[in-house]
Give the backbone structure.
Amino acid sequence: EAIAATIAAIAAAAPDFDILVVDDGCTDETAAIARGAGATVLRMPFNLGIGGAMQSGYIFAEEKGYEVAVQVDGDGQHKPEYIPEMLEKLRTGDDADMVYGTRFRGDPGYKVPIGRRVGNLIFAILLTLLVRQRITDPTSGFRMTNRKGIELFARDYPHDYPEVEAILMLHHHRLRIHEVQ
């Protein structure tokens, strides 16, 4: 239900960006709606899960030669108007290979349910200790990576807890992470 509005919001906030929708085996009209809204659609033959779908998007970005890729959930929970700010953070100096949007600083316009918030807090504490950097929202799906991140995630993208594990992968490969509101 939200895909057309999400595509329109991304197009308005980041008109220079191409929009790819990874249809992970949907049985409804998602692909047709996304195409009608102006997105390129990559259809999976069956449901691969979030990890497989995300890796497919990164493979697409790598093959097409993109220097930047943004991950935005299709349900409208992310605010695409933050894309330019994320791009600015990604391009300012050498302090970020991935920028992610946290829901726990400022007003994201989205209320995280309490159960998910507790789990997120546990992951945040563990990741902060492991990567020696404050991570406040390790399960955020609103992320932007540069070419190094695209290449890494095209080769391998986690499948079990993909957002959390992706932060560990970035740290392991010495790629830098920056958080924005």
In short: The beta strands are 20-23, 40-43, 68-71, 98-101, 143-146, 177-180. The first helix runs from residue 3 to 13. The mean pLDDT is 90. The radius of gyration is 16 Å.
